[in-house]
Amino acid sequence: MTQKIASLKKLQESGKNIHRLPFSIRILLENVLRNHDGFAVTDDHLNTLMNWDAAGTDKDIPFKPARVLMQDFTGVPAVVDITSIRAEFVRKGGDGAKINPAIPVDLVIDHSVQVDYFGTDYSYQENVKLEYERNAERYQLLKWAQQGLANLTVVPPGMGICHQVNLEYLAKGVVEREGWAFPDTLVGTDSHTPMVNGIGVLGWGVGGIEAEAAMLGQPVYFTCPQVIGLKLTGEIPAGCTATDMVLSITKILRDTGVVGKFVEVFGDGLDKLTVTDRATISNMSPEFGCTVTYFPIDDQTLDYMARTNRSAEQIDLVKKYCQENMLWRTGKEEIEYSRIVELDLGTLEPTVAGPKRPQDKILVKELDSTFRTVLDQDFKRNYVAFDDRREHAWLNEGGSGTQFVQEATEEHKETLAANTADLRSVKIKLKNGEYRLSDGSIVIAAITSCTNTSNPSVMIGAGLVAKKAVEKGLRTRSWVKTSLAPGSKVVTKYLERSGLSTDLEALRFHTVGYGCTSCIGNSGPLPPHIAEAIDNSEMVVASVLSGNRNFEARVHPQVKMNFLMSPMLVVAYALIGRVDVNLMEDPLSYDPNGNPIYLKDIWPTQAEINETIKKAMQKEDFKEVYDVIFDGDEEWKKLEAPEGKEFVWDKESTYIREVPFFKNLPAEPLALTEIQGARVLLYLGDSVTTDHISPAGSFNEESAAGKYLLSRGIDRKDFNSYGSRRGNHEVMMRGTFANVRIRNKITEREGGYSVYFPTKETLTVYDTAMKYKADGTPLVVLAGKDYGSGSSRDWAAKGSSLLGIRAVIAESFERIHRSNLVGMGILPIEFPDGQSAHSLGLTGEEEISITGMASDLKPFKMVKVRALKASGEAIEFDARARLDSDIDVEYFKHGGILQYVLRSYLSR
């Protein structure tokens, strides 16, 4: 090869046993070997990976990805941060054009489209129109970034889902840059980033602060992982799909326990799995609990690259590099794994998962009985057979033109009581017909999520199911809200070319948008008469979706049961409209002549699917779609946005504000000072998660964030969510520690409240923090075990910083949140082993002083903590500062990782 490479083969020839290492560890080793600098990437890191211990280690390793992938919800605050850094750089006399991501960043706008309109030929256009109305301010920032920031590309709304775009277009396999060739790797700000593992690209989801560090050229640190080998044998049997396979794997790996570990797939079963089948598996890594599910590069990889219009030169580079550098799968490797788990694909059966966890596997033939069990155990209701149901509720006619009626017999005129023990059922009478809605009725059927829409086999399969159903005279049930949200426009092209779009639309599966939709909860409102019936009757209704997550209230707040399944089964269940059936035996419906139609009557063979794919999918489609991927639709082109290299902040915006972290930043970091006379803002227990800390979901007018928006003239109906306002620190800091279920031990009031001790007032956490800030009083948090566990939410650390928190003293920290605290200049401190705030006699009313930071600060330094009670009694103890490396110490000295980066720019 003419390019320079960090050679694993040479390490093998020097006596290192590289051949025994899993492929994913080899990629991490190459990364450390190539980026070794003796400071951020050291000899210790190199030795940890060269001598990888399959049994596991607690040692951290660095990772410098080739690129970063973002979606818009998490991407907006990252763009706000780097734009704010540029603004301060300009104020200090620098050239703003020099402040850009250090590595390529691809931001795909896919998280904001909602299914307000469905089942019509105008649904897509109306949903797009609403999307732009709701997100104009955010999109203006991103459109500016598209031309204002170098090394950052923005895929406009309506182009696809970030992971499918990554798989079909962005992923290179091997990168050629500055004379080097090296593996294509990435981190992403979405948990399903590992989907790209299916094409042999190592990548995973991280928090916003870690992603921003990576995009500014800093390493991401994590514990060197164990690697679980997933051995697949045989092949998927007739009647089953890749979705059945991934839901079965979810169950197996959850039972195995793979949290925080890598999974790597091997075995002869790989030879029969296409890249899109593999990507279906890799996509659900977060549901498995692992960091990645890696598929090594092989002939299947190259075949997919060719069919998706990668250049012959790129494919040749991938093959030559991987074969030269011990990264090519032959199937004859003798790799040492931490543990091996096996699945014979030939044992698969049609499968769904639910009703509220992806690992709760249910065979299709057992869904009926499972529903009955859940209805009894979770909702304390007796199942009533479909033909024996009587309506339990009488509701007056509403403005929707809908009437809810019951059978006109005297004994059934009582209104629904809250403790009714039987299955709930109402008859809904519309002006154009009537139907019965019951517990177990399906009110949402969504073909959604890149998990499945990236796989032509199940998408063409869904179209063929629809075609056969239409030919048999079947139609979707009236009460089902249907949607089709492809992950890229390539899907639309092959569905149209095959003629299957017409059949899907005949069953009301019209395209509603190109984005995540129902998979992330953007299902939109249910029709008013359906929503009213559910609420008034407290019905337990269901959704069926081809997504990857089904936690209660995630898909829709009124839907308590959510079942994951293939797009093909989504269509089938929409035809029958309820989940209390055994589709393997019960008829879906009856044709116009009264003949029963079963699932087997409309289920295509794999040969039919393959033949249709062969005719309908064309390489030119990928060229046509991705040649214009960054151009956007007419709405994007018409969107007015700032131009030039310096973003003009709109002081009236309640969505996008310049963050205060960098304003008036001194060229050199101020000398570290001890923390004196601090007050406890929160005294928390064990397992406080980032969901407790970070702003998430909706909020009302009584919250600190709500009061702020009202003061800015924003009506309650226009509050939107915390997620949509992540680009405005004023909203986000007010929502930090505002979770209604958080329990602060220094006040008896549940929720986001604290005590301002000088006056003993109980106020919101935000208002308390601002009173202390006005006094010049630093703040600390006391916590128990596993502080900051859960999803890596950057605002859990950012919001803490803005509230004035200088340190968190806890029994233990979740790894990523500890790193994020350091990245925001907050000192994580651990109580002495075996001790806690409670065992030391702390109440949270003390004044806290922390000394030992001002001089000779080094990794894991012991600091002195002194807690002074009002009585004059002092509690003193030594505790360990969790600055775990030299680079952690540097970040902390600078007040945070982004401040460290800005100063490095200024010093140049």
Characterise the protein shown here.
It is built from 31 helices and 33 strands. A seven-stranded mixed barrel has the order 25-28-29-30-33-32-31. The protein is globular. The two termini are 35 Å apart. The relative contact order is 0.11.
List the helices and strands and how they pair.
Elements (H helix, E strand, L loop, with lengths): L7 H6 L9 H13 L7 H8 L9 E4 L3 E5 H20 L13 E4 L14 H26 L3 E4 L6 H9 L3 E4 L2 E4 L1 E4 L13 E4 L2 H8 L4 E4 L3 E7 L8 H15 L5 E5 L8 H9 L1 H4 L3 E3 L4 H9 L4 H13 L14 E6 L6 E3 L7 E3 L3 H13 L23 E3 L19 E6 L2 E6 L3 E6 L2 H4 L2 H16 L9 E4 L4 H10 L1 H7 L21 H10 L4 E4 L15 E4 L2 H10 L12 E2 L5 E2 L1 H4 L3 H11 L2 H8 L7 H5 L36 E9 L6 H4 L10 H8 L17 H7 L17 E4 L4 E4 H11 L3 E4 L11 H9 L2 E6 L4 H9 L3 E4 L16 E5 L10 E7 L5 E8 L4 H8 L3 H11 L1
Parallel strand pairs: 2-3, 2-7, 3-4, 7-8, 10-11, 10-13, 11-12, 19-20, 19-21, 21-22, 25-28, 28-29, 29-30
Antiparallel strand pairs: 1-9, 5-6, 14-15, 16-17, 17-18, 23-24, 25-31, 26-27, 30-33, 31-32, 32-33
Helix pairs in contact: 2-3, 4-7, 8-9, 15-17, 15-19, 15-21, 16-21, 25-26, 26-28, 28-29
Keywords: 4Fe-4S, Iron, Iron-sulfur, Lyase, Metal-binding
Function: Catalyzes the isomerization of citrate to isocitrate via cis-aconitate.
Catalytic activity: citrate = D-threo-isocitrate
